[in-house]
Amino acid sequence: MSMPCVPFKVFGTFARNPNHAMRFFIDTANLDQIREAQDLGVLDGVTTNPSLMAKEGIHGEARVKQHYIDICNITSGDVSAEVISTDFAGMVKEGEALAALHPQIVVKVPMIKDGIKAIKYFSDKGIRTNCTLVFSAGQALLAAKAGATYVSPFLGRLDDNSQDGMDLIAQIRLIYDNYFFETQILAASIRHTMHIVKCAEVGADVATCPLSAILGLLNHPLTDIGLAKFLADYASNK
User: Fold this and answer.
1) Could you write out the DSSP letters of every residue in 134-181?
2) Is 108 a residue of the active site?
3) Quick check: helix, strand or coil at residue 238?
4) Does the structure show a pLDDT above 50 at 7?
């Protein structure tokens, strides 16, 4: 009798797909910043929320919905759109309306009891979801069991409360790999470039961050010194 094919283990965790690259999302509602990240050639998606919308002066249901469509027209990746309701019926109504706006929309749902119920409902309906405001491995486990497409652990806010957010990413990665959960780890509340690098080290599927953090990966003083010397040597040899 043939045995089922399963992934092999490496040092206690399942081997990752070698073709699976970490993706970069930008966390903003600013269209100019989204365009800049898109032009850089590394943008894979966008996350936003009511606070970021308000920061850009986007108010009112109609304007917010149009803004989501405008974002989808800039990037070809997933765009997380957050529900405002905190009850099951309200989240379902809002989520279905958001998902109908554009095929790239992923409905962002808070990590609460009715949120888990809504994620299960959306999953059964084929609507993709992003479970947000996750601060523990147990919460991430529930989100995956309910069928969330993404789970968003908030690193920076954990760091602000004297907890190592990166430990949470590693813990979720181990749990998801142990049980073959397809939910993707979308590391959120990223404050700086080292957060991105550390997320890549521990195996986050996605990092969502401000444009400044992405551009910060470009910078190193030795690069600037080396380029200046190359250009100076070139000029002296003309």
Assistant:
1) E-SHHHHHHHHHHT-SEEEEBHHHHHHTT--HHHHHHHHHHHHHHTT-
2) yes
3) coil
4) no
Cα–Cα distance for residue pair 184/152, rounded to 1 Å: 9
Average pLDDT of the segment spanning 131-139: 97
Largest CA distance in the chain: 74
Number of H helices, E strands in the chain: 11, 10
The amino acid at residue 170 is A
Q: Which two tokens stand for residue 139?
A: 């919460």
Unique residue bearing structure tokens 């190193």: 220
Whole-angstrom distance, CA of residue 197 vs CA of residue 220: 14
Structure tokens at 132: 């947000």
What's the mean per-residue pLDDT of the chain? 91
* Nearest-angstrom CA–CA distance, 172 and 23: 17
pTM value > 0.70: yes
Element (H, E) at 51: helix 50-55
| Separation CA 172–CA 136 (nearest Å) | 8
Q: Which CATH number fits domain 21-236: 3.20.20.70, 3.90.226.10, 3.50.50.60, 3.30.160.270?
A: 3.20.20.70
18 token code pair: 């070698």
Task: Check 55, 93, 108, 125 and give the catalytic one.
Answer: 108
The C-alpha R_g of the chain, in whole angstroms, comes to 20
Q: Which residue, chain included where needed, has tokens 């959120």? A: 188
Distance between CA atoms of residues 118 and 110, nearest Å: 10
Q: Estimate the crossing angle of helix 137-146 against helix 165-178, to 10 degrees.
A: 40
